[in-house]
Amino acid sequence: MPDDLRHLIDALDDVAHEPGVSKPDPILVVDHVKRQFGGLTAVDVQHVEIQRGTITALIGPNGAGKTTFFNLLTGFDKPNEGSWTFDGHQLAGVRPHKVAKYGMVRTFQLTKALSRLTVMENMRLGAQDQRGESLFASIFPFLWRGQENEITEQALQLLDSFNLAAKQDELAGSLSGGQRKLLEMARALMVRPDMIMLDEPMAGVNPALTQSLLDHVREVRDRGTTVLFVEHDMDMVRDVSDWVIVMSQGQVIAEGPPHDVMGNEAVIDAYLGTHHDKPLTDTGEALTAHHEEQ
Amino acid sequence: MDWGNVFSQAITQGIGIQAVIFALAAIGLNVQFGYTGLLNFGQSGFLAVAAYGLGVSIAMMGWSLWVGLLVGIAAAVVLALLLGAPTLRLRADYLAIVTIAAAEILRLTFRSVSLDPIFGGSDGINRFADDFYSFNPYSSPVSIGPVSFSENDMWIVTIGWILVVVMSVLVFLMMRSPWGRVIKAIREDEDAVRSLGKSVYAYKLQALTIGGVMGCFGGFVAAIAFQSIQPDYYSTDLTFFAYAVLILGGAARVLGPIVGSVVFWFGLVLIDGTLSNAVSSGTIDFIRNDQVGQIRYWILGISLMLLMIYRPQGILGDKKELSLDAR
Question: Could you give the ipTM of this predicted complex?
Answer without folding.
Answer: 0.87
